């Protein structure tokens, strides 16, 4: 009898934790496990701003999936672009561009999220995101190159546009990105004697009326004060009206000379969700507390792409798309798949939120572990301690700790690799959101397989 086929889509926190639990709990002959991912590493997303700032190396936050001692999962290098739950086939586009039709008995949908964008003129062509390792490395190169080019230029207008940086999004990603990158540009001024410190301008804008409202008024205000003290201009209730090559227009009418627009204004569930033609909640797949997709046999979903009921908060609440929940949903879902294989009852996911941490670089941070409000060095100790403990392997922990210590002792460096130096990269170059099929296209594709078969 053939072994049941378990297909996990996505190597984020949820997908990887699910795979690792499956490898530990299932006997080698009990099931066949496959993982679909463009890259054979798990990215520790919350530390990307520190990669962009050069505090951490890219390798230190990318944990190899092939280092596991229990590794027996087949890794398929590509991305899922469509799922036909009736035919039980997942359509995969491999990194070579070829299409693979992968059959499954159980599928775990953990494709994560993509940067949420809006119909703003010029946004997709001129904005950069902070969602992938490549984007973080590119932004670091780009920011340093703006300093180099401004230093080399004698044109005051060009200098003004190159030394103006705009970050959109007052959540954790945007706030940490603005804080970490502003700090690196201020430190770099010692190496650029031709640049006037007053010319470097950082703007953080958000359409919301408060900065990081999840932290509460007190800590949100504390974070705002840290940013303003550093010289970052924070504008709330404002967004981008138009983005150009060398200028940005705000919705309040201001026009800034600017060649760096970093867009971190929220996330949306992976477009893969739309290929199933299933019920959604604000764009995320609606699932049961056991993380099964109703009426779809053998389909499970979790993480950013799924609206998982938050039983700890009560009826009508859903788990927020955070690493904290994804890392715990993965093992629980794996246990439910094992239970399904062994004809045992499935159990619901329940987790009480442990709090929030925001590292603002240097000695600045704000944290709210278990509802306790912290700021400054104690908050940073909690923030970095939490991130360090959440890393999966001792190798990753050693690399991150070594990077932190080296940066504290030796200071920042301003090396750029020249990544895509001749071709400006934008959101469209890093997140392939136009590669997905529609539900009708998926059904037509799988039907043609049946005809050919």
From TrEMBL:
Q: Which UniProt keywords apply?
A: FAD, Flavoprotein, NAD, Oxidoreductase
Pfam families in the record: Pyr_redox_2
The cross-references to PANTHER family, in alphabetical order and at most eight, read: NADH DEHYDROGENASE, NADH DEHYDROGENASE-LIKE PROTEIN RV1812C
What is the recorded name of this protein? Oxidoreductase
Q: Does Calcium show up as a keyword for this record?
A: no
Segments forming domain FAD/NAD(P)-binding: 5-330
NAD keyword on record? yes
Q: Record's InterPro entries?
A: FAD/NAD-bd_sf, FAD/NAD-binding_dom, NDH-2
Top-level taxon in the UniProt lineage: Bacteria
So what family is this one in? Belongs to the NADH dehydrogenase family.
């Amino acid at each position: 009898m053939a072994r049941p086929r378990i297909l996990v889509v996505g190597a984020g926190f949820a997908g990887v934790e699910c795979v690792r639990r499956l490898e530990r709990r299932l006997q080698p002959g009990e099931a066949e496990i496959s993982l679909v991912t463009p890259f054979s590493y798990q990215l520790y997303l919350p530390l990307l701003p520190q990669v962009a700032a050069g505090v951490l190396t890219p390798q230190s936050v990318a944990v190899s999936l092939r280092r596991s001692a229990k590794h027996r999962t087949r890794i398929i290098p590509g991305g899922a672009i469509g799922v036909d739950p009736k035919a039980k086939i997942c359509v995969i586009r491999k990194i070579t561009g070829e299409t693979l039709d992968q059959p499954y008995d159980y599928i775990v949908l953990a494709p994560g999220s993509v940067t949420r964008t809006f119909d703003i003129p010029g946004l997709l062509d001129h904005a950069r995101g902070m969602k992938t390792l490549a984007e973080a490395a590119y932004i670091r190169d780009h920011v340093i190159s703006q300093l180099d080019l401004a230093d080399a230029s004698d044109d005051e207008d060009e200098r003004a546009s190159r030394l103006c940086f705009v970050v959109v999004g007052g959540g954790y990603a945007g706030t940490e990105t603005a804080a970490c990158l502003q700090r690196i540009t201020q430190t770099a001024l010692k190496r650029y004697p031709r640049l006037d410190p007053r010319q470097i301008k950082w703007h953080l804008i958000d359409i919301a009326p408060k900065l990081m409202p999840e932290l509460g008024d007190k800590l949100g205000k504390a974070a705002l004060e840290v940013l303003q003290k550093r010289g970052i201009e924070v504008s709330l209730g404002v967004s981008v009206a138009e983005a150009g090559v060398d200028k940005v227009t705000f919705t309040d009418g201001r026009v800034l000379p600017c060649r760096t627009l970093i867009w971190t204004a929220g996330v949306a569930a992976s477009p893969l969700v739309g290929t199933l033609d299933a019920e959604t909640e604000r764009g995320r797949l609606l699932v049961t507390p056991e993380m099964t997709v109703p009426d779809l046999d053998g389909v499970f979903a979790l993480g950013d792409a799924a609206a998982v009921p938050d039983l700890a908060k009560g009826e009508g609440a859903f788990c927020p798309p955070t690493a904290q929940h994804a890392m715990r949903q993965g093992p629980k879902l794996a246990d439910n798949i094992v239970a399904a294989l062994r004809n045992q009852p499935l159990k619901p996911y329940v987790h009480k939120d442990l709090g929030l941490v925001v590292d603002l670089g240097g000695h600045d941070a704000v944290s709210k572990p278990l509802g306790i409000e912290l700021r400054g060095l104690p908050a940073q100790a909690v923030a970095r301690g939490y991130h360090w403990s959440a890393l999966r392997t001792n190798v990753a922990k050693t690399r991150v700790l070594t990077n932190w210590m080296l940066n504290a002792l030796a200071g920042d460096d301003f090396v750029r690799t020249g990544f895509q130096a001749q071709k400006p990269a934008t959101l469209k170059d890093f997140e392939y959101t136009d590669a997905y099929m529609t539900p009708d296209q998926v059904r037509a594709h799988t039907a043609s397989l049946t005809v050919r078969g």
